[in-house]
């Protein structure tokens, strides 16, 4: 930027932008309610999501006839997560190849969600969460 004289011009910047994370799941019969959160996802919190969002919804919609498919993210493959899955849903996990985005169906859902959000971009985090809940 150029200016005349000894004036200083400051460009405002955002040091730490607000963030929203989602955990999503779906089945042949549709999507389950989104889990929307802002804290960082670690293996402890991921196990809580599995307890309160996955098991609750999957068992209501499908009884015991369902399978969990997830990528090989470190949170998914942590000892804590593997132990919890083995104890709480031993027959519901499918092995999945690592590094295979072409075989990861959730990426199609995320792409569709991004398309819907980009049509009318939310201005605030509150608006974003409301829009996510309505998709």
UniProtKB/TrEMBL annotation:
The chain crosses the membrane at residues 20-41. The keyword Membrane applies. InterPro entries: RNaseH_sf (IPR036397), Tc1-like_DDE_dom (IPR038717). This is Tc1-like transposase DDE domain-containing protein. The keyword Transmembrane applies. It holds the Pfam family DDE_3. GO terms for molecular function: nucleic acid binding. Keywords: Membrane, Transmembrane, Transmembrane helix.
């Amino acid at each position: 930027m150029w200016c005349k004289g000894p004036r200083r011009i400051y460009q405002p910047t955002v040091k730490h932008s607000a963030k929203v994370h989602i955990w999503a799941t779906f089945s042949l019969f549709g999507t389950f309610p989104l889990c929307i959160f802002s804290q960082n996802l670690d293996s402890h919190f991921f196990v809580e999501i599995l307890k309160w969002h996955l098991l609750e919804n999957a068992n209501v919609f499908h009884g015991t006839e369902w399978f969990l498919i997830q990528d090989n993210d470190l949170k998914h493959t942590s000892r804590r997560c593997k132990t919890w899955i083995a104890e709480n849903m031993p027959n519901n996990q499918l092995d999945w190849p690592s590094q295979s985005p072409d075989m990861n169906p959730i990426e199609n859902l995320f792409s569709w969600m991004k398309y819907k959000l980009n049509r009318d971009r939310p201005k605030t985090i509150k608006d974003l969460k409301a829009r996510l809940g309505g998709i």
